[in-house]
Specification:
Layout: H1 3-21, H2 33-36, H3 78-86, E1 91-96, H4 110-126, E2 129-131, H5 160-176, E3 181-186, H6 192-206, E4 211-214, H7 221-229, H8 245-252, H9 261-267, E5 271-272, E6 275-276, H10 280-309
Parallel strand pairs: 1-2, 1-3, 3-4
Antiparallel strand pairs: 5-6
Length: 318
């Protein structure tokens, strides 16, 4: 054998040895048999694992724990969601909030705090609904050049096409898992157009298998203000900020820190538009009325929209 041939053979052997020692190489020392041999997917597998490795990864496994006292998907396990769907909770609310400036007292996540209180109340009152995670990134103005709320630090804006694409993917994911009514509620004006466009597109696409609904009636602060006037909450002169007593109290019931409550009381600044909010007990009483009114009004609208869009069942189908 020539010197050149010997060198070539040595290189081949060395290369083969190096490959065998790589973590992903078949037959590498110390690698589990399970990783060395690819298995076909098990159709029973769910939960992020393989049914063959642990029965808790099987689609028909019994829930080892009681159903949690929550309506939020992000606070549930996949088994909790599966069982909720089987129990008839086939309505899911997709709340859209935002990140924007709201005067000197309210945090930038204002709409998200409001929705955390309201979606929870709506879903619980419906009894057959859950809440998807709050969509916090919505159109707030042009990014470059800056416009609208984007002129203030802390604002995060999504382009309209990005926003609609996100809503579409969320809704189609939920529909794929068996939810029948995907319900959009938006707590900000800029959210409404995109919700309506996505709802119309998906309802047409699904052809009766499921509905996507935009509930514009949820975003009706004028009716809330009128109702609360009758409950003794009457505003005075405006402070000229992106803030008012209704929104403040709707946030307060979710988290008083979101309206800087303790700091304002201490500083003697616990007022908005002429309304004193320094009395914690009174705040809670009024806030509960706000949430209850908004939940009731929204559920009435949801039922109306479902009835209007659902195809009537013929006698032959009954």
């Amino acid at each position: 054998m020539t010197h050149t041939a010997l060198v070539a053979l040595s290189l081949v052997v060395l290369a083969g040895t190096a490959y065998a020692q790589q973590p992903g190489a078949a037959g590498a020392p110390g690698q589990p048999q399970q990783e060395r041999q690819r298995r076909e997917p098990d159709p029973r597998s769910m939960g992020g694992g393989d049914c063959r490795d642990n029965p808790y990864n099987c689609n028909d496994v019994a829930n080892p724990l009681p159903q949690p006292n929550t309506v939020w998907l992000e606070e549930m396990t996949w088994i909790d969601v599966r069982d909720a769907l089987k129990a008839g909770k086939t309505n899911v609310i997709v709340p859209t909030g935002g990140m924007e400036p709201n005067g000197v007292w309210l945090v930038t996540g204002k709409h998200n705090y409001v929705l955390h209180a309201n979606c929870d109340a709506i879903a619980r009152k419906m009894g057959n609904a859950l809440c998807a995670p709050i969509v916090k990134f919505v159109p707030e103005g042009n990014i470059e050049p800056k416009s609208g709320h984007m002129t203030s630090p802390g604002t995060i804006s999504a382009r309209e096409e990005t926003y609609q694409a996100l809503l579409t993917d969320i809704a189609e994911s939920l529909q794929a898992h068996g939810f029948k009514n995907i319900i959009f509620i938006g707590d900000s004006g800029g959210n409404q157009k995109g919700q309506q466009a996505v709802a119309d597109k998906l309802t047409a696409k699904w052809g009766g298998k499921a509905l996507a609904l935009h509930i514009g009636e949820y975003y009706d602060y004028a009716s809330v203000s009128k109702y609360m006037e009758g409950q003794g909450l009457k505003e005075g002169k405006s402070d000229g900020m992106h803030d008012d007593p209704i929104i403040t109290l709707n946030m307060f019931i979710d988290d008083p820190k979101s309206v800087r409550y303790d700091e304002r009381v201490k500083a003697g600044k616990a007022t908005i538009n002429g309304v004193d909010i320094s009395n914690r007990a009174k705040n809670m009483e009024l806030a509960k009325k706000i949430v209850e009114f908004r939940a009731t009004k929204t559920i009435e609208a949801i039922n109306k929209h479902i009835a209007a869009k659902s195809k009537p069942t013929s006698a032959a189908q009954q």
